[in-house]
Design goal:
The protein is α/β, with parallel strands linked by helices. Helix content is 29%, strand content 21%. Strands 3-2-1-4-5-6-7 form a seven-stranded parallel beta sheet, sandwiched between helices. It starts with 7 loop residues before the first strand and ends in a 20-residue tail after the last strand.
Length: 190
């Protein structure tokens, strides 16, 4: 598959399940990926999972490892993680935050980068397995997966080309009340 061919992406974080799921989808789609991992064990595991299309480094090494190539996409845990890469991010690129970033932070960076046509958005994962440390299931009745978060993050990065400053919950409805509307399902209530 070549959906992300000629795309260069950096996935900055701790090589957790979500970061690894994003990197896997990018690699499967033909992208060149730089992934950070904070420990040697995580780096070895991620490198084995991703193969030769991805390069895994300690977080501090990413700016130096870019060489002369720029980036099209940045996936990061926080604004502080993404900021050192901004000079290398090509105009028209995208940043997606992959932790529950503050809406104000996402909106501020989106406004800052709008003149370069760089879109800045965030996913806000919640109730994601295996780290689902919740006492109740979300309204959808199950825990989500890192893969489901990755799909939304990649949508924001590559498909939502007129969206910036958005923060999308990926939490099975936990953050919002979900009510049953009988007329929406064609029920008459009679």
């Amino acid at each position: 598959m070549t959906k992300y061919a000629r795309t260069r992406a950096a996935v900055i974080g701790e090589a957790d399940d979500i970061s690894l799921a994003i990197a896997k989808r990018l690699v499967e789609g033909g992208a060149k990926v730089l992934l950070t991992a904070d420990t040697a064990d995580k780096r070895a595991y991620a490198a084995a999972e991703l193969g030769s299309a991805a390069h895994v480094f300690p977080p501090a090494e990413i700016p130096a490892r870019l060489g002369d190539d720029g980036l099209d996409l940045v996936f990061a845990d926080a604004v502080a993680d993404a900021r050192p890469l901004l000079p290398r991010l090509r105009d028209g690129g995208a940043i997606v935050f992959t932790t529950p970033a503050s809406a104000a932070g996402v909106e501020a960076l989106a406004a800052e980068l709008a003149d370069r046509s760089i879109r800045v958005n965030a996913v806000a994962p919640g109730c994601i397995a295996p780290g689902g440390a919740t006492t109740q299931l979300p309204p959808l009745g199950r825990l989500g997966s890192a893969e489901e978060v990755a799909r939304v993050a990649l949508f924001l990065a590559t498909e939502a080309t007129f969206t910036t400053g958005a923060r999308i919950p990926v939490d099975g409805g936990l953050g919002r009340p979900v009510t049953h509307n009988p007329t929406s399902a064609g029920e008459t209530g009679a």
